[in-house]
Amino acid sequence: MAAMKEIPYKIYLEENEMPQAWYNVRADMKNKPAPLLNPATMQPMTAEELGGVFCKELVAQELDNDNAYIPIPKEIRDFYKMYRPSPLVRAYCLEEKLQTPAKIYYKFEGNNTSGSHKLNSAIAQAYYAKNQGLKGVTTETGAGQWGTALSMACAYLGLDCQVYMVKVSYEQKPFRREVMRTYGASVTASPSETTAVGRKILEAHPGTSGSLGCAISEAVEAATNQEGYRYVLGSVLNQVLLHQSIIGLETKAAMDKYGIQADIIIGCAGGGSNVGGLISPFVGQMLRGEADYRIIAVEPASCPSLTRGKFAYDFCDTGMVCPLAKMYTLGSGFIPSANHAGGLRYHGMSPVVSQLYHDGLIEATSVEQTKVFEAATYFARVEGILPAPESSHAIRVAIDEALKCKETGEEKTIVFGLTGTGYFDMVAYEKFNNGTMSDYIPTDDDLAQGFAGLPKVD
Amino acid sequence: MAAMKEIPYKIYLEENEMPQAWYNVRADMKNKPAPLLNPATMQPMTAEELGGVFCKELVAQELDNDNAYIPIPKEIRDFYKMYRPSPLVRAYCLEEKLQTPAKIYYKFEGNNTSGSHKLNSAIAQAYYAKNQGLKGVTTETGAGQWGTALSMACAYLGLDCQVYMVKVSYEQKPFRREVMRTYGASVTASPSETTAVGRKILEAHPGTSGSLGCAISEAVEAATNQEGYRYVLGSVLNQVLLHQSIIGLETKAAMDKYGIQADIIIGCAGGGSNVGGLISPFVGQMLRGEADYRIIAVEPASCPSLTRGKFAYDFCDTGMVCPLAKMYTLGSGFIPSANHAGGLRYHGMSPVVSQLYHDGLIEATSVEQTKVFEAATYFARVEGILPAPESSHAIRVAIDEALKCKETGEEKTIVFGLTGTGYFDMVAYEKFNNGTMSDYIPTDDDLAQGFAGLPKVD
Q: Of A151, A140, A154, A230, nearest to A189 (Cα)?
């Protein structure tokens, strides 16, 4: 254990303390995440089958349940050095304002132009695509952070980048689109007329505001229809969680350096990229019997895959062209209410996170967006960072846990993931500022509709 | 001299290496900046007269030409710790892309929600206002960075904040307004009907897109008309440059720590807050005969106060209600062409920077905005940070100097100030992306009109 040192406001690791390898939590999981299934055969997808959609090296990472550490190539580590290590911040001001005995830390991933942690996986995926001699990649983006991150990574490496952006975000966030264009990407509102699956969805649901599931279908189709292109995804997949383990590894290294021991670890959960990455090394300790933590995944009440979904095989996309994943899901046809602002709109959840939740290693909770924006505004004023709506789900629960400590007098150490900034979410903030933001929690009937579309898997 | 160490991508000072005092370059200047004059009497403004508009402690700082170091109160240093020290970044990727032997560094001030260095002075000014028992402050904002910074500082301290925002920015940057509102500020487009001076300007120039000079007049009137309010300004004033010296002090400390010796120091110049702060300690060395640097202030060709203005007493505002300052000026009636995107639209220049320029200690140059956005886009793709248009003026000249080194083979060390991020400037980036951005350089006749309004001072 490190000697007691005064904890600075921000802990930055030195460059030589940065992780040299990603941590693959699957290696330590007794119950591995279930394999992806080929929807035609209902058999586990082979490396060859996956290779038609994803880069070769990424397929290997996707299927690797054995190696605990996977070296980060030097080129990726060099890119990481441009915006990493990200700070682990001690929320001294928030603690004082809340008058809580709890000690609150957050790992802040927003200090880069993509505005979030998404860049951690974007550069890895773009690097392997480049390395394989590809011309370009296609992807979807919801809140826009992933698309921006991928655009940045592709611009850096000289790859073409085609982004299908969920229509509601495309309209609410025109400036996100311009950031992507500044990085040389082409951006299409989804569902669009440019793909067969997009046309089919538009025909079935005219006027739809789109969903991540739709945009994924279109991006996959675009990738498979162009020579020298592959599809990349910003969340859900095992490979993405692997890359995002850099968040948790840095967090743990910073904590170890200062002798900080976490009690509660909190992350927001959409597809699971952030929470999965943040908690990986800590869950690894739990799986190896080395430590115990309370881990909480926080999701929107309007898109409650963990807390109200089914643990079942489902399509990863709305168009049902992608493999099936076993995960907590609301059904691939589920589209959150249009009044839901920000990201975390995915119908499913990372198979790794789903399995950990199913095995009782982590908890999940859901919060309503007006409560989330209350916490976001409070946090912005006290800690000086305007958070992304997604990140603010974790802030909400961190504040609630800190307030519980105030009642009980417990000096718990709370660590949460502040995944990004809300600079492109001002339409949502404006609604909140004007008092016109509302909540919508899906009824059981709403959910039953989504569940009805679940595929039958023996 | 420090031992040779490998230079990391980003140099972060430790908290205990952060400056404890601001540096007041005026103490080392042989030719002091000329005093502010009372427009009614044409006599130097007394502390008492200034106290009607500014907080007491800030008046003392404004008039202090003698003390080289002014301690930073602990409360301000604590706030600084939330977003400082800012990194001094080695632009390894840019150097490689340019294939230049030059070594390029930038001091990045954009890693905070205000998106710029403006927060450094905002928290200081808000702190002294709070300390004096005031209810609130009024101010103007152009590009919006200063208004956001002040809103953040006021929210943190619980002060009311009233912002007059230049109309063209108000319209181009609705999201900036929402950030300020999220921090609890009230924001009014200027010129407005809420002040006598605003109504007068609107009558004389119906349909005007506003200017910093107009907004200053309105904010000053609003401050003097409300009990318990004072006016605060984000640039130009001596006190602002004092607070912003934190930029230069940290830069110098980081360079000294790694034994880096600058040859060229480059800063963008609007009212002078950034360039003045960045260069202060380096100019101090020059003034004391301890070192020599080439220092370049870069301004927009559309608002060229240093390169084409007159060194004369002029009003700081359009409404001619403020004191007169001796500075390089285009005349308080000068309003840059509406096609000018971004900030750096002020008609004058900090008296300190003006005096240093007049005395030949620093150079100045001007650049056209399409060239600036070319550099901005190039930099974004290579270094992964989408820069503010203002900051990109410095990037442009840094790249040009690095390319000169490529021709001559000189291994110069170039340091520039990257004052902020362009996340709220996407309307301008969109114009550039679409190829519809144009340049306008004022003609001699345009400038003659501005000069005609200069006051007569014996």
A: A140
